[in-house]
Amino acid sequence: MTRIADRDRNALDRRDDWRDSASCAGLDSRVFYAEGRGSTAQVQQAKRICSGCPVTKECADYAITNGEYYGVWGGMSQKELREKRRRFTSKSKTSMRAAA
């Protein structure tokens, strides 16, 4: 039984390994959550940090599948993530209908 639990825990650890390679690793997360005056500039600053990141796809996928509605994730603003989430949800529903 312990072996299965260890294997499951290792799988979960590997799933989040992408965070170690992120350009934002070690930065103050508040940089990625814009609010108030200057929020547009703050979003642009966060996107610049993301622009050279090797794991933007993993980051955006994480945000979409885990319901992250706020902040810049994978180099995308909240609005861009919302649009991608809608497309992802629509594709999932279409796939489920086709499989039924």
Structure report:
The protein is mainly α. It has one domain (2-99). The protein contains four helices and no strands. The termini are far apart. The model has no long low-confidence stretch (mean pLDDT 82).
Quick summary:
The chain is mainly alpha-helical. It has helices at 2-15, 39-51, 56-65, 78-99. α3 (56-65) packs across α4 (78-99).
SSE diagram, text form:
Layout: H1 2-15, H2 39-51, H3 56-65, H4 78-99
Name some characteristics of this structure.
100 residues, mainly alpha, 4 helices
Strand content: under 5%
Rounded to the nearest angstrom, the radius of gyration is 16 Å
**How far is the N terminus from the C terminus?**
35 Å
Helix and strand content put the structural class at mainly alpha
The shape is: globular
Chain-averaged pLDDT: 82
Sheet having the most strands: none
The count of domains is: 1
Record field, number of beta strands: 0
